[in-house]
Amino acid sequence: MRVAIEKVDGIESVEVSLVKAVTDIRLRPGNTVTLEQVRGIIRSSGFNAREATVTASGRVFVKNDQLLVDLAPARALLTIQPGAAGGAAAEARTFAGSSAQDVEVRGVIRAGNAISLTSIARRDILSLMRDPSRTDATGESRSVPLLGPLTR
Q1: In the chain, domain spans
Q2: What gap in Å lies between CA 74 and CA 84, rounded to an integer?
Q3: Cβ-contact 147, 49 below 8 angstroms
Q4: I need a labelling partner for 7 at 20 to 30 A (CA). Which of 32, 33, 51, 90 fits?
Q5: Residue of 32, 33, 1 whose CA lies nearest to 14
Q6: Model-level pTM?
Q7: What does the buried/exposed string (b/e) look like for 64-87 if buried means 16 or more CB atoms within 10 Å of the residue's CB?
Q8: Are 39 and 147 in contact (CB under 8 A)?
């Protein structure tokens, strides 16, 4: 499974722990990898892809009274579930306001494209506090999805 995932353009690294039933996947900045693409590889390798803990950068906005995060250039949209822990969904709505805002979101995706946020931060604020190990040479934030647990 690790080798198959590593072959996907945009994958930076893959760590698999069969003991913990977890796969940690790090993506290159500007990648177009989708969660469904990775889950498909995991399933075709004979494992079940369950919830994914995700850290990703995108633009949060409101459309038809629904909070969304656009994960361009991957052409993927995440729907933010209301009632997120610690008020993260309410904070996302504040960030979106009347125009899209660049953000970094963290949360859990159990199925489909709905994310239950654990945190959200505007990227202009993050750039002031950014850990240099989490950025590339241009200062772009890395998308870092973590998949797990996986069971055979």
Answers
A1: 2-151
A2: 24
A3: yes
A4: 51
A5: 1
A6: 0.74
A7: eeebbbbbeebebebebbeebeee
A8: yes
* Strand, coil or helix: 125: helix
Identity of residue 39: R
Cβ atoms of 8 and 38 closer than 8 Å? yes
> Cis link prior to 73 (omega < 30° from 0)?
yes
Which amino acid would we find at residue 43? R
Opening angle at CA 77, ends 97 and 53, nearest 5: 100
Q: Where are the alpha helices (DSSP H) in 54-104?
A: 88-96
Q: What is the pLDDT along the chain (152 residues), one digit of tens a residue?
A: 899 999 999 999 999 998 998 899 999 988 999 999 999 999 999 998 889 999 988 999 999 989 999 988 887 899 999 876 668 888 888 888 867 788 999 999 988 899 999 999 887 754 544 444 444 444 444 444 444 444 44
Q: CA triplet 32, 38, 41: central angle to 5 degrees? A: 130
